[in-house]
C-alpha cells in the first residue's frame, strides 16, 4: 500500500498547438519504505527538486498536498527501508525544505 504524488505541467500539442496538462509522477510513499523520488521525467535531481518545490502537488486521488506536508511525510519515513540493492538506478539524497531535512531514495527509471 502506498501513495503516489504528481504535478501537472502544461505542454503544447505537437499536432494542433493547443495546450494540455501532462500528469507527471514525482514519487511515492510505500508502507515500510523511504520516500522514493521518481526523477525519470526530469534532467536530474536538481530539476526535479525545483519543479516539486514550485508546483502544486497532488496525491493519486488528486487531493492537493502542500510541499511542507510532503516534506514532513518524507522526514517521518527516512529511517524506513531503503531501495539499495534493487538496482543501479537507485541512489539517495537529502531533501531539504523550510528547515525539514529528510533522506530519500532517488530512482532514475519510471515506476508507480
What's a concise summary of this model?
The chain has one domain (2-107).
Main attributes of the structure:
112 residues, alpha+beta, seven-stranded mixed β-sheet, 7 strands
Can you describe this structure?
Strands 5-4-1-2-3-7-6 form a seven-stranded mixed β-sheet. 19% of the residues lie in helices and 42% in strands. With 112 residues, the chain is of the alpha+beta class. The chain has two helices and seven strands, in the order βββαββαββ. The protein has helices at 45-54, 67-77; strands at residues 2-12, 19-30, 36-38, 57-59, 64-65, 90-97, 100-107. It has one domain (2-107). It is globular.
Inertia-based shape: globular
Q: Biggest sheet: strands, sense, closure? A: 7 strands, mixed
Can you write the helix and strand succession as a string?
EEEHEEHEE
Total E-strand runs: 7
Q: Give the low-confidence spans.
A: none
Q: How many domains in all?
A: 1
Distance between the termini: 11 Å
Helix content class = 10-25%
Rounded mean pLDDT is 90
Strand content: 35-45%
Layout of secondary structure:
Elements (H helix, E strand, L loop, with lengths): L1 E11 L6 E12 L5 E3 L6 H10 L2 E3 L4 E2 L1 H11 L12 E8 L2 E8 L5
Parallel strand pairs: 3-7
Antiparallel strand pairs: 1-2, 1-4, 2-3, 4-5, 6-7
